[in-house]
Amino acid sequence: MNDDRKPPRGSGATSEERSRTVQWHTRPETADDIAAIRAVNLAAFPTPLEADLVDALRADPAWIDGLSIVAETAAGEIAGHALLTRSHVDGAPALTLGPCAVRPDHQRTGAGSAAIRAGLEAARAMGENLVLVLGHPEYYPRFGFTRASEFGIGLTIEVPDEAMMALALDPRGEVPSGTVEYPPPFGI
């Protein structure tokens, strides 16, 4: 479990006051959460692609129990979700972070950050080391992600160098270099 406190948007209170009022409880998904996770992804994105991707990954061998993390409100409502699945870098095991989603009414409150941090901690506890993300270069560095190219890691498709990022959960551990092999549902 991980708790992350951030201010809700538009509450009228100061940032400091709001940061004391919102507490995110994080935990691995259960079978009872599947519909709510889909609803979060459908609400967070303009198309159903990410929601469909989560469902496809759940049915894929890349799925790792305990690495689909939800952030819920004090009332137990699922507000955010982060997913880590098995990928490879030239055959060496790695994890891929994403999709990550937060319901629009809870965005910018720390729900997404709480789910991501809890997912990274769960991965570390499982002995995983390398986590990859293809995402917003202004968002993911707050978790320690840097350009994957700094590790000699790349993709088979063209993406901006700053968008493909990597994180070594144990900087002393071995980090493979080479080409990222995403799980088939990603279509990369």
Description of the structure:
It is a single chain. The protein is α+β, with helices and mostly antiparallel strands and 188 residues long. It contains four helices and ten strands. Strands 1, 2, 3, 4, 5, 6, 7, 8, 9 and 10 form a ten-stranded mixed beta sheet that branches. Helix 2 runs antiparallel to helix 3 (49-58). It is globular, with a radius of gyration of 16 Å. Mean pLDDT is 90; it is low at 1-21.
Brief rundown of the structure:
The protein has 188 residues and is α+β, with helices and mostly antiparallel strands.
Short key terms for the protein model shown above:
10-stranded mixed sheet, 188 residues, alpha+beta, globular, single chain, disordered N terminus, 22% helix
Q: Which series of helices and strands comes N to C?
A: EHEHHEEEHEEEEE
Give unreliable regions as ranges.
Answer: 1-21
Which percent band covers the strand fraction?
25-35%
Task: Return the structural class.
Answer: alpha+beta
Radius of gyration: 16 Å
The amount of helix comes to 10-25%
Query: What form results from the Cα inertia axes?
Result: globular
Instruction: Count every helix, treating DSSP H or I runs of 4 or more residues as helices.
Output: 4
Terminal CA distance: 32 Å
Quote the average pLDDT. Answer: 90
Largest sheet: 10 strands, mixed
